[in-house]
Specification:
By secondary structure, the protein is mainly alpha-helical. It has one domain: 434 Repressor (Amino-terminal Domain) (Orthogonal Bundle), CATH 1.10.260.40. Helix content is 60%, strand content 0%. The protein is built from six helices and no strands. The radius of gyration is 21 Å and the shape is globular.
């Protein structure tokens, strides 16, 4: 998901999303700050999402980012699928399974294995 966000952000000219460029820009594409502003989310939140360290991002926020990046329907669907896979909670191990592993380790360490 992060790579897709970066590639799409870098491919968009500010003029394409309705931003005016004053003077020469040192970079091509949109900045993270530009995307955050257009999507109406905080810069830090977008930055963490792009870096893959964000937790608890909702699907509506993903849609706003996709819209800010002018993603086509297929790109948006892919982003939402990636988000769903990434946001899916991991099933915790059952307490008895974890306890069995601990007691097995304790037996192995006490027997010198």
């Amino acid at each position: 998901m992060s790579q897709m966000l970066v590639e799409k952000r870098n491919s968009l000219a500010p003029e394409k999303v309705g931003m005016r460029c004053e003077g020469a820009r040192r970079m091509h594409g949109l900045s993270r700050r530009d995307v955050a502003q257009i999507a109406d989310i905080s810069f830090n939140h977008y930055q963490r999402l792009e870096q893959g360290t964000s937790v608890g991002v909702s699907a509506p926020v993903i849609v706003r980012i996709c819209d800010a990046l002018l993603m086509e329907d297929d790109e948006k669907a892919r982003m939402l699928a990636l988000h769903q896979a990434w946001a899916r909670p991991r099933r915790p191990r059952s307490g008895s399974q974890a306890a069995g592993e601990i007691s097995g380790r304790q037996r192995a360490s006490s027997s010198g294995v």
